[in-house]
Design brief:
single chain; 6-stranded antiparallel sheet; 3-stranded antiparallel sheet; 2 helices; globular
């Protein structure tokens, strides 16, 4: 059985998550962009966050749907682990913190860029690309 859902496995060309050319964007954070329709204003990507890493507090510029593929994170809404889906919108602000022991790998679909609350995160956002 594949470590990812079949439609995602097809997008990855049969590669395992560990075989992907992840792009390191910040300490503890790597992304792998996935193709979307040229008409789409959103993004689709895989995100790998190192164990114990706290993401900067942020909100969302529109809808964001996140499927947890492996690992788990916690935020003020609860715990999200493998198979869970977080469906967030522009009214939600949170700070995901990945549990220790294993990286959290997520499939993320966004309508608009993330809205980071801190100035350092805002300054780095163009480099991070989310």
């Amino acid at each position: 059985r594949s470590e990812v859902p079949d439609p995602l496995a097809r997008l990855l060309g049969g590669k395992a998550l560990g075989e992907l050319a992840w792009k390191r964007k910040a300490p503890g954070l790597a992304l792998f962009d996935l193709p979307v329709s040229p008409a789409s204003s959103g993004k689709l990507f895989l995100m790998r966050i190192a164990p114990g890493t706290a993401m900067p507090e942020h909100g969302h510029g529109g809808e964001e749907i996140t499927l947890i593929l492996s690992g788990a994170y916690n935020d003020k809404f609860g715990r999200y682990a493998q198979g869970d889906v977080a469906d967030l919108d522009e009214n939600i602000e949170h700070q995901p913190i990945v549990e220790t022991g294993v990286a959290c790998i997520c499939l993320v679909a966004t309508e608009a860029p993330t809205r980071f609350k801190s100035w350092p995160a805002r300054l780095l956002q163009p480099l991070i690309g989310i």
